[in-house]
Design a protein that fits this description.
91 residues; alpha/beta; four-stranded mixed beta sheet; 42% helix
């Protein structure tokens, strides 16, 4: 993120935390949801389930986060249609 910022390059990221820290846009799986699933799996294993018997899980919740402050710094205008579909807009 620092390199993209230094050279004023618009960049996208996988996790919302990077966008919250100053990145432009992120689209990726929700880390909160993924960590909750890890906790559920750990609970099942602690209750005696065999890890090999547990299904492989794929992310089901994805988040689009846009940082308007960063967009303004880069001189970019985010289309209203993209803002309307975002899960979170950081101003």
């Amino acid at each position: 993120m620092a390199l993209a910022s230094r050279y004023a390059v618009p960049a996208t990221y996988q996790f919302r935390e990077i966008t919250a820290a100053g990145g432009l846009i992120s689209y990726g799986p929700s880390l909160t949801t993924a960590m909750r699933q890890v906790g559920i799996y750990a609970g099942k294993i602690l209750k005696g389930a065999k890890p090999t018997d547990l299904p492989v899980m794929q992310p089901t919740k994805f988040e689009l986060v846009i940082n308007l402050k960063t967009a303004k710094t880069l001189g970019l205008t985010i289309p209203p249609s993209l803002l309307a579909t975002a899960d979170e807009v950081i101003e």
